[in-house]
Design a protein that fits this description.
The chain has about 240 residues and is mainly β. The chain is about 0% helix and about 45% strand. It contains one helix and 17 strands. Strands 1, 2, 3, 4, 7, 14, 15, 16 and 17 form a nine-stranded antiparallel beta sheet that branches. The chain has a three-stranded antiparallel beta sheet with strand order 8-13-10, with no helix packed on it. Strands 9-12-11 form a three-stranded antiparallel beta sheet, with no helix packed on it. A hairpin with a 2-residue loop joins strand 5 and strand 6. It is elongated, with a radius of gyration of 28 Å.
Length: about 240
């Protein structure tokens, strides 16, 4: 095959599959940066202190994906790959009093988590009372006056319209089979596919998010360790000789 000079300036599309079944997990084509690389340290046999013979140690491979536009499912790679549809969230709501000494609470409120404050005093001196059947009743009824609004903090159970990924020490990332596909252009302007396959990838259990009101949009970076599979494979690089049909 003739060697042809080619260059690349296109981020990879990332095809992520569950290694155990090879079932597709996520096809991701919105990454801004994708990387692949490996190292293998050398061990040397020496003679009179001089390095004479080199032995390569097992390779240490890494893939990374960086994105600003991404699906929520991408984060689940750092857990066990599952997404729950119920969640408990902290909420703050201003509620108007329509019955003396009482406030009607939203559905799903956890009773032990309800704290009521005068408007503008959230986190200050709370109004004492009890919660029963989505209703807060003040211990001193005069503290809740009809027509006045109060700030209420509580934990609510959401059972619809939410997705939740749990990060804890019981859930660990699965192994994945990952293909990164990009294109290259040769000196004649012909564009051909270029593919990197990593046979066994373990997401690094690490996440660092920063949210800002200025500058660039928030970026998520996921790093994978490229391991050796049961057949001794780590990674392949495939260059197409002709443009894909």
């Amino acid at each position: 095959m003739t060697n042809i000079n080619k260059a690349n300036r296109t981020c990879c599309d990332v095809d992520i599959r569950v290694l155990k079944t090879l079932a597709p997990y996520l096809f991701f084509e919105d990454a801004n940066v994708t990387t692949f690389g490996f190292t293998a340290d050398e061990t040397y046999a020496t003679s009179k202190g001089a390095k004479k013979i080199a032995f390569s140690n097992p390779m240490d491979g890494t893939m990374t994906v960086e994105a600003q536009v991404k699906p929520f499912k991408l984060y689940a790679l750092l857990s066990d790959g599952t997404i729950d549809t119920t969640a408990v969230v902290a909420e703050k709501k201003t509620i108007a009093c329509t019955a003396a000494g009482e406030l009607a609470l939203p559905a799903g409120v956890k009773s032990a988590s309800v704290f009521v404050y005068g408007e503008g005093d959230f986190g200050g001196e709370s109004i004492k009372g009890t919660v029963e059947e989505s209703k807060f009743t003040a211990a001193t009824p005069a503290e809740l006056a009809v027509g006045q609004s109060y700030e209420v903090g509580y934990l609510a159970v959401k059972e619809s319209g939410v997705q939740k990924i749990s990060f804890n020490n019981k859930k660990n990332p699965q192994d994945y089979y990952i293909t990164m596909k990009t294109v290259e252009k040769d000196e004649s302007g012909v564009i051909t596919p270029y593919v990197i396959t990593a046979y066994k990838c373990k997401p690094k259990k690490a996440l660092d998010l920063s949210f800002s009101s200025s500058g660039d949009a928030a970026t998520v970076k996921i790093e994978f360790a490229c391991l050796e599979d049961k057949d001794g494979n780590v990674a392949d690089m495939v260059e197409y000789a002709e443009a894909e049909a």
